[in-house]
Design goal:
By secondary structure, this protein is mainly α. It has a domain of 139 residues: Four Helix Bundle (Hemerythrin (Met), subunit A). It is built from 6 helices and 2 strands; from the N terminus they run αααββααα. A two-stranded antiparallel sheet has the order 1-2. α2 runs parallel beside α3 and α4 packs across α5. This is TIGR03086 family protein. GO terms for molecular function: metal ion binding. It holds the Pfam family MDMPI_N.
């Protein structure tokens, strides 16, 4: 298991990995907060995104399919899809020095300071880990500390990507304004209390 040397990204990768490992075999067809995608499609999207970050950094191969149009089936074990993507992204970011002013990323603005670029990749992995967890009845891997650490990247990235990667920001429920997890999810257009339609 490759470490990126960036604690935030390694933590987010660990969250996504732990959730994917815990999903029961019959859970991958479950609906998710990403309304058009089931849990398997969210995993394919998340893996594709990590490969896209790696490809932009290294010039290596990117995802085999469009991460924003993931196929609706998983071929093989989830780890066979996810691990190469996480390894590629971790290895790529391991070569990024703190303070680097311009780091290539796969979405607009296509270049970010190192800390924000790392935060962008981590945000993607961690929030999709949450999507899969709540879809399949697993504990949320998105802790208050992780959510707070991801918020600076979200502040930079969300507005330019509204309607594409993120939905409109949602209001925070009364009493949840001080909750960094609920605040982050609502800011990204997700309902913090989302449950599957048949739950």
């Amino acid at each position: 298991m490759t470490a990126s040397g960036w604690d935030l990204l390694d933590h987010a990768h660990a969250a996504l990995r732990s959730v994917a490992d815990a999903v029961p075999a019959d859970g991958w067809g479950r609906p998710t907060p990403c309304e058009r995608w089931n849990a398997g499609q969210v995993l394919r999207h998340a893996a594709g995104d990590q490969l896209a970050y790696a490809a932009r950094l290294t010039g290596g191969p990117g995802p085999a399919e469009d991460p924003f149009a993931p196929s609706d089936t998983l071929a093989g074990a989830p780890a066979q899809l996810l691990e190469p993507a996480l390894e590629a992204a971790a290895g790529a970011f391991a070569g990024v020095a703190p303070g680097t002013p311009e780091v290539a990323v796969p979405l607009p603005p296509f270049s970010l300071p190192a800390e924000t670029a790392v935060g962008a990749a981590a945000l993607d992995a961690a929030v999709h880990a949450w999507d899969i967890a709540v879809a399949t009845g697993l504990p949320s891997p998105l802790t208050p500390a992780l959510a707070a650490a991801l918020r600076p990247a979200a502040q930079v990235l969300a507005e330019p990507l509204r309607g594409f990667a993120y939905g409109p920001a949602l209001p925070i429920a009364p009493g949840a304004a001080g909750d960094p997890v609920a605040s982050l999810l609502a800011f990204l257009g997700r309902r913090p209390g989302w449950t599957p339609p048949d739950a």
